[in-house]
Amino acid sequence: MYNEQYRPQLHFSPKENWMNDPNGLVYYKGEYHLFYQYHPYSMVWGPMHWGHAVSKDLLHWEELPIALYPDELGQIFSGSAVVDAQNTSGLKTSDEDVMVAIFTHHGEDNEKQSIAYSNDCGRTWVKYEGNPVIPNPGQKDFRDPKVFWHEESGKWVMSLASGDCIRFYGSPNLIDWELLSAFGSEYGAHGGVWECPDLIQLSVEGEDQKKWVLIVSINPGGPNGGSVVQYFVGEFDGLEFVCDDSADVVKWADFGRDFYAAVTWSNLPEPTWIGWMSNWQYANQVPSEPFRSAMSIPRKLGLSRINGEFTLLQTPIDLSSLYKEVVVSNETIALKSSETYRVKLDHRQLFAQANVMDSTASEFLISFRGEQERLEIVFDRKRKEVRIDRKESGQVSFSEHFASMDRMPLAEFSDFTLILDKTSIELFVNQGSNVMTELFFPLASEFTLEFRALDGELVLENVELRHLESTWK
Ligand code: FRU
Asked: In angstroms, what CA-CA distances link 351 with 320, 415, 440?
């Protein structure tokens, strides 16, 4: 089990069949719940259910029975879940706190918001008999409710994607909702429809202040094509979100092709999110079997002021409990111009981290090479960008959109963290302020990792290369 050719060994994927967005992320009594858009009868997108998995550490997941099935109101599209500890909803019937899921019913007629509740730690769910709780107001795209308790105004607040903007609703009890405001028609990127919002508050690193961050997925319209997550930084007073930046500023959370629909866990003090590791441009065609799609590594979120700009920081959760063999630990690797450092990898789960010092090199290359293929990351100081080239990374022809060279603007780099799994690479640069997530489907079974400097020298310090054990056990 869980050892097929393209089965991620560090990332959650369903045992079988189709998965997309993470849904209903909520923490309760030592368990992280991960619900997800799921089509249990096929490996392509179809009538949506909420699949369900739980974890005690965000690394090892146990798949549970399907939580929500489609019904006469429609399919169960994306949404969120909260712990209603004060029983504001009146839906509590046991000693456990009641968990309430807020989701979109996608009917043939339209999209509307509904709720369901669980009194047994998320194991079984009952749909509320008064559904929908927010009927459709005559808007075609009207979905993906994300709810949190807004302490200052003493109410639940919902962010909802509504065509080209995010609407905010407020409620005392998760059942009766009133429209508060809307944001975004004039702001940010609009290359596609807005989806899967999340509104969170983050402390600014090294400052005594907090800011509100509005997360919005958009599909298509990504800087490298297809699905992507953007974010806005500003203030929220319980009524309205006001963006700090001017309307034309666009902030991308991840420049890679494969990080979408990311949202945060509810009821967790440390803001942590996870994204769907694919792209609508080719998600239905990727060559994995008997399942399609995995989630990203869960990432802790922070906010930092970098060159005057509030910037999202993403740090992968601690993987040290998975450390297996040490390939290299706390080493310094000095590369002369055109010199290549090579190390053979025993298997594909790898954690790599280094600080980059004294670099005069115009390019720094990290490659994963199989016999006839390679995935290459290029830090290019002349062009001030990082590129990931997956054009010759193995199977690429299943979709015309897949074989790509993807770019992220970046002037200088001081450190990087890499997480490599069977079919993915996640790259975090400069303390996680610049991130790229990309899939690839290698054919080779043996791999070499290479570091190479071009047109100058470069020193890597505190280099850690660790193989990681599988999380499926
Ligand atoms: C985002 C999305 C959501 C929708 C769901 C349907 O990937 O399109 O907007 O709720 O997927 O599966």
From this structure: 9, 14, 17
Residue-wise pLDDT tens digits, 416-442: 999 999 999 999 999 999 999 999 999
CB 169 within 8 A of CB 115: no
Calculate how far, in angstroms, residue 378's C-alpha sits from the geometric centre of ligand 1. 33
CATH tag for 17-316 (out of 3.40.50.2300, 2.115.10.20, 3.10.20.540, 2.40.50.180): 2.115.10.20
Instruction: Give me ligand 1 centre to Cα 95, in Å.
Output: 34
pTM of the model: 0.98
CATH of the domain spanning 320-468: 2.60.120.560
Q: Which residues line ligand 1 (CB under 6 A)?
A: 20-21, 37, 48, 77-78, 104, 143-144, 195-196, 261
Phi, psi torsion values for 284, nearest 5 degrees: -75, -5
Nearest alpha carbon to residue 82 among 121, 29, 24: 24
* Order of strands across the sheet that contains 299-306: 260-264, 272-276, 299-306, 309-316
Q: What is the pLDDT of residues 86-143, one digit of tens each?
A: 999 999 999 999 999 999 999 999 999 999 999 999 999 999 999 999 999 999 999 9
Task: Tell me the CA–centroid distance for residue 81 and ligand 1, in Å.
Answer: 16
C-beta of residue 407 within 8 angstroms of C-beta of residue 224: yes
The verdict on whether 21 is a catalytic residue reads: yes
